[in-house]
Design a protein that fits this description.
Length: 316
Amino acid sequence: MEFPSELRYAIEQMAVGQDIKAMTASAEGISKRYRSESGAGKSLVNNARDTLAYAAVRMPATFGAVSRALELTLECFDEDITSILDVGAGTGAASHAAELLTDCDNITCLEREESMMALGKQLMQARGIDAKWIKRDISSAEISEQADLVISSYCLNELTSSARKAALMKLWRSTDKLLLIIEPGTPEGFSQLREARKFLLSEGGYIAAPCPHNGECVLPEDDWCHFTARVARTKLHKQLKGGDAPYEDEKFCFLAVSRRECEGRARILRHPKIESGKITLKLCTEQGISDKMVTKKSPLFKAARKSDSGDSFAEE
């Protein structure tokens, strides 16, 4: 799903008159802190310029990852969503994605950084959404709000290990129907979600996506489950990232946990291997990981040809 034009225009207008070199330095600083200080509980933005740079370079990627994760989840989850709670909302990227996919504008955003909240409110207004913003640090405060859909995107990885476990419990207690967690598509990000998966299953949750079952994850320790969202890059994005490519691929991991049991679907774990007259898919199924070869003679060939990593796939 494309990053909304209203948001893109609003961010570009805010950047008019800004020192691009200073914003580029802010973007580089955010990336450096993201790589070296995630997991330490530290703030990744220090001022309004940092926040604007974050919105320009990270908000489209977060929007893309959340959109893709939620699209895959809603294939397996058919309950109505009447309220959304975005925890660690940043500038609101996850909320915009969820609003577009669920048509629900009853949105509450929890965020600890005032500069993020201020910019997030402006961007909500740009799309005519009257979201409620609350200053809250989930590592030190309780979550009293409840919602059908609770989202935590690129938030838990910023916390220390002990704070992460406590935050998971808070997120689950606030969830009426569905909890969606998105983290970086790295071995560390997947490891954290793997632990979250065990915990939420022990608390009575059911996996909606991406796993097709509620059993133990069967991936070996040296492997990780991750997906990709292709993100179009604007002129401002290219300037701040120092590149000319028209797009970038955001790699992410995600976990969707429901309050009720969902219908499991086999999931494509890697990009399909396309050869003459056949396509091989690496699938995660209820029975485990398997390679499925689909030939031209199969009624599934057309679906296999259109499929991609992350898609669900009918085994028969």
